[in-house]
Fold Group II truncated hemoglobin.
Amino acid sequence: MTENKQTTPYELIGGKTAILNLVERFYFFMDSLPETSGVRGMHAADLAAAHDKLFKFLSGWLGGPDLFIQEYGHPRLRQRHIAFAIDEVARDQWMLCMNKALNEITMDANFRENLSQALQQLATHMINQDG
């Protein structure tokens, strides 16, 4: 009897270590690129809490351990971000950081593109202000 186990995006990206690296690089770019100062300004001076929450969210979102839900409950992303004025510019700054970080993680090119598109849709869903 052959087991038919489906591989999750969490496994495809490389699990915990890869997600930690992705989040580290994401916040490195957010903290260092002048063109992302708008989205950086929405964050606390110390990015440790944001880093931890994004790692935990991505872990579950990609099919790994539901760390965010275990600690904070349902993500309700739009509700959690409603206090921030997020427009297309902020979304694009966020995606610039994420795409740069994704490009530094070893993964299949098609998977990277699909992941980027899914994150783009998620980031677009956060928009709560007109351009």
In short: Helices lie at 9-13, 15-32, 37-40, 48-61, 67-72, 77-81, 88-102, 109-125. The chain has a mean pLDDT of 94. Residues 15-32 form the longest helix (18 residues).
